[in-house]
Amino acid sequence: MGSFVKAAFSDENGVSFSLLNGGISPLKAIHMMKSLLLFLPVLLAGAVGQTAAAEKMNVVVLYADDWRHDTLGVAGNPVVKTPHLDRLASQGIRFTENCVTTSICGVSRANLYTGQWMSRHGNRGFGMWQTPWEETYLGQLKGNGYYLGHVGKWHNGQIPKDKFDFAVAYHGRHWYETKEYGRVHVTQRNENDALKFLQNRPKDRPFYLTVSFFATHAEDGHKDQYLPQPESMELYQDVSIPVPLNATQESWERLPDFFDEKNEGRNRWHWRFDDEAKYQRMMKNYFRLASEVDATCGVVLNELEKQGVLDNTLVIFTTDNGYYHGEHGLADKWYPHQESIRVPLIIVDPRMPSSKKGTTNQEFTLSVDLAPTILATAGIEAPQRMQGRDISDLYLPVVDAKSAPWRTEFFYEHPTLRSKDFIPASEALVRKDWKYMVWPEDHVEQLFDLQSDPREENDLASDPAQAKRLAEMRQRFTELKEAAK
Question: Where would you find the membrane-spanning parts of this chain (predicted)?
């Protein structure tokens, strides 16, 4: 693993420059450019092979697994160490209210690639979505000349390797025996494969790469669940992981009555969190996996910098879903609580004004928004049936003063898996201040005031004082559910 040491893209006055080695002033850079212009024909002759790639922006998506919004140092987590992602956030913008529209690995990935809600793309588990490939952002990029790469977890049936220029897909275990690398940790394998793609790609084409980590997903069949690399074991030895305030028996008992010991979220809670010593051991190993992903992100960013392409590359860090750390007496994801649906999003876009770098944005951005954002960056019009919005509207100068206001609410959906006793279906209308949840198989609805009850423990659906609000949110929920199809 390496470290991400990145020169700033602006001087002390916030003036951007790209002839960088840290200390070049803007004035000196101008003089250098004037001198270089004298040799422009020679430079152009030597740059054959780079010109075509520079015409379109490259895209790298760093995509982690089972990683909720606050598992970042920059997000205020008091324990986990993520210096490379923190540094990435300082060079771009971090979206603090970013959410997924379905909180499970396979469907969430389909949401990402298609820019559509589950109700439209049709993947309700781990198979392939029904949206035509050409309507995904992957298909659009490939059709417009991009060198297309995927490394790591796919989880939508078999990866269609013939549609990529470089594709290696694997997940499910933390350790692998491979012909190429011998015994290797999955995160190190992600790193090796990402470097292979970047170092061997053609230099005359723009490129796209997903580095799709399996970490921090548990190895569900293993008694230890989270299996970091040996060199990470020295991390977090002398710290105590705070237990969430709503990770209590009382919080579990506040869930709807159909939640019982057969529920898979409760089952996995027993695997990981049902006593204090186990909680500490599991969470420390979970955070070690997160720090390993952070280190590999640093290596990838170093390679981009080494190749001189960072100033023409959109870099995105996000994750497939949130994660319960014992809240509500649960583990894993699936349900509409904040811990499950809120995920990190960091975007570094070379077009971004200096004033936006290192800032945060509190608008509701969603997993379905990344597809149209990536296509807009590549200069490609989004297919008509994509449902997300171009996030760059939130950080690039406004061109069209008539742009629609940003969303203030969204529809969440999750399918039944196996049976309603195992993982029941759930839906929600999510706003910043209120959340309306529906458990359709049991005809149960819940209402939470997120301002006064951010841990979602006091259901107000039966409170007569909230009858008008409940009716309004129920009606709006119905409208957004229909619009998601």
Answer: none
pLDDT (0 to 100) of residue 126: 73
Domains by residue range for the chain, with CATH: 23-55 (no CATH), 56-409 (3.40.720.10), 411-483 (3.30.1120.10)
Q: How many residues does the chain have?
A: 485
Which token pair is 331? 């583990």
CB atoms within 10 A of CB 255: 22
- Residue 476, SS3 per DSSP: helix
Number of neighbouring beta carbons within 10 Å of residue 81: 18
Return the number of other C-beta atoms located less than 10 Å from residue 14's C-beta. Answer: 10
- CA–CA separation, 250 and 315 (whole Å): 42
> CB burial class (10 A; 0-12, 13-18, 19+) of residue 133?
middle
What distance in Å separates the CA atoms of residue 224 and residue 243, rounded to the nearest whole number?
19
State residue 6's pLDDT score. 34
Residues of the chain with pLDDT under 50: 1-52
What whole-number distance in Å separates Cα of residue 192 and Cα of residue 168? 11
Which amino acid appears at position 386 of this protein? M
In whole angstroms, what is the distance from residue 430 CA to residue 341 CA?
10
Q: Strand order in 409-414's β-sheet?
A: 409-414, 426-431, 434-439, 444-449
Q: SS3 for 446? A: strand
Give residue 30's pLDDT. 31
Token pair for 401? 């003063």
Indicate the residue type of 366: L
Q: How far apart are the first and last CA of the chain?
A: 44
Of 167, 158, 168, 164, the C-alpha closest to 106 is 158
Q: For residue 122, which amino acid is it? A: G
Contact (Cβ atoms closer than 8 angstroms) between residue 391 and residue 365: yes
